[in-house]
Amino acid sequence: MFVDQVSVYVKAGDGGNGLVAYRREKYVPKGGPAGGDGGNGANIVFKVDEGLNTLMDFRYNRHFKGKRGENGMSKTQHGKNAAAYVIPVPPGTTVIDEDTGEVIADLTNHEQEAVIAKGGRGGRGNTRFASPRNPAPDMAENGEPGQERNIKVELKLIADVGLVGFPSVGKSTLLSVVSAAKPKVAAYHFTTIAPNLGVVDTGDQRSFVMADLPGLIEGASQGVGLGHQFLRHVERTRVIVHVIDMAGTEGRDPYEDYVKINEELAAYDKKLLTRPQIIAANKMDMPDAEENLREFKEKLGDEIPIYRISAITKDGLRDLLFAVADKLEEIPKYEQEIEPADETVVYRYQKEEDPFHISRDPDGAFVLYGHRIETLFKMTDFQHDEAVQRFSRQLRGMGVDKALRERGAQDGDTVRLLDYEFDFIE
User: Fold this and answer.
1) Which residues are in the OCT domain (predicted)?
2) Predicted local distance difference test score (pLDDT) of residue 217
3) Helices 371-378/385-398 angle, 10° precision
4) What is the 3-state secondary structure (H, E, C) of the chain?
5) d(CA 371, CA 109)
6) pLDDT at 334 over 70
7) What is the pLDDT of residue 171?
């Protein structure tokens, strides 16, 4: 089964907790703190494996969670960092954050890697908090929570040549006779419901990858038929081969077919019209094909090369494949398109995210939320009084006390943070 789009949840590993410990050795009366730091949590990493050509592995496993870092140990020993969780993906994979719409990574080259979710930092042990004022601190940090994301993983096949055309014009038949691929071939529309890939050998030490894409119809770019979900695969191809039923076996005009397909490609992405195109006039062994081809050439002109072929009898295939191979030699391999930078560099000020927000629950309690304040809370070990006092100072420094007073908080009011409740005390 071909899978080219899937939603996935990823959670990087949490950092290990720091340790509160003290050095206790004979003849060392004032050993001092000796708690080690926790290790870092595992990153979630996507790595390209050119042996894959589908997202099938994601179909049955939609949740990926990295290991947490090892906790700190006594004698100032650092906890072990967790190894990255590496997930293989096929070339042409695009990763998008579902919540923000941001493109996280566009992976095209073999063994290319991208960190999709970053592991949490390990918490600091009490050794790190020692100072002349407090030489033996009784506190340590918990590990930072790992990043979690809902992502959309899309595959855009990286093929050298893409076959496009209306249903039943002979794309699958053409691929089956020029390569070892065995796509399903039948005399009805949408026989091909997933892209098929085949390696074509021209016989003169040249080869390329050809993709047979499901039939496009008018309105495909708006979601009509199957074309909408597979148009993305045309984006990566370096040469587009239009396969046209020149015999008009279904009563359509070949030139109108050609125009409509180009309109759908342009409606999806105007850049596709800049790709080199070659026309494969198929079914030339059928009646009326010669007359239709003559009319087609009159309407089109000499802009785009046309090759007469018959996928059934294999006539003209050698010339077509040589022309495609010659065209590919003129075009560099796919490289990620980078928009040319403007000569004038404009630095935009990006406002930092507010460290906290305040709202009210129906029962009158004040609710604190925000990424920074929640992270500080999760990294605080409330079993030690010094850690609690430090957290209180951090809140005061962030302006939480002042903001609560401005919102009308009074002595004894309830303040909620995540699943915990505190009393506001003046």
Assistant:
1) 348-426
2) 57
3) 170
4) CCCCEEEEEEECCCCCCCCCCECCECCECCCCECCCCCCCCCCEEEEECCCCCCCHHHCCCCEEECCCCCCCECCCECCCCCCCEEEEECCCEEEEECCCCCEEEEECCCCCEEEEECCCCCCCCHHHHCCCCCCCCCCCECCCCCCEEEEEEEECCCCCEEEECCCCCCHHHHHHHHECCCCCCCCCCCCCCCCEEEEEECCCCCEEEEEECCCCCCCHHHCCCCHHHHHHHHHHCCEEEEEEECCCCCCCCHHHHHHHHHHHHHHHCHHHHHCCEEEEEECCCCCCHHHHHHHHHHHHCCCCCEEECECCCCECHHHHHHHHHHHHHHCCCCCCCCCCCCCCCCCCCCCCCCCCEEEECCCCCEEEECHHHHHHHHCECCCCHHHHHHHHHHHHHHCHHHHHHHCCCCCCCEEEECCEEEECCC
5) 34
6) no
7) 78
Is-contact 109 91, C-beta < 8 A? yes
- Binding residues for GTP are 165-172, 190-194, 212-215, 282-285, 310-312
Binding residues for Mg(2+): 172, 192
Say if residues 259 and 303 touch (Cβ distance below 8 Å). Answer: no
Phi-psi region of 401 (alpha: psi -120 to 50; beta: other; left: phi over 0): alpha
Query: What residues form the annotated binding site?
Result: 165-172, 190-194, 212-215, 282-285, 310-312
Judge contact between 178 and 214, C-beta under 8 A: no
Buried b (16+ CB within 10 A) or exposed e, 238-253: bbbbbbbbbbbbeeee
CA distances to 275, 366, 403 from 362, in Å:
59, 10, 19
What's this model's pTM, rounded to 2 decimal places? Answer: 0.71
State which of 170-184, 185-199, 281-295 shows the largest mean pLDDT.
281-295
The string over 34-50, giving b where at least 16 C-beta atoms fall within 10 Å of a residue's C-beta and e elsewhere, is: bbbbbbbbbbbbbebee
